[in-house]
Write a structure and sequence with these properties.
76 residues
């Protein structure tokens, strides 16, 4: 095993739940005054994009028929 392989971190996935947690973190931090006024525009833009994305994913999941995500072609 080379030195390069020893230092590599395992690949981590960012999930929809992680994104929801980030949205909550932004909510709490803004309520507690963690951001400067000049930072609020950028934070608000990112927050709005995140919220829109999460809403779209939620709508897509609700529109998907139950069991469709687990369906696989026969024989595989």
């Amino acid at each position: 095993m080379s030195e390069e392989n020893k230092t590599e971190a395992p690949a981590q996935e960012l999930t929809i739940n992680d994104l929801g947690a980030l949205k909550s973190i932004i909510d709490v931090a803004s309520q507690r005054g963690a951001f400067k006024p000049n930072e609020m525009v950028t934070i608000g833009q990112v927050y709005n994009k995140l919220e829109s994305f999460l809403n779209a994913v939620q709508a897509q999941q609700q529109a998907q028929p139950e069991g469709a995500e687990a369906a696989e072609p026969a024989g595989e």
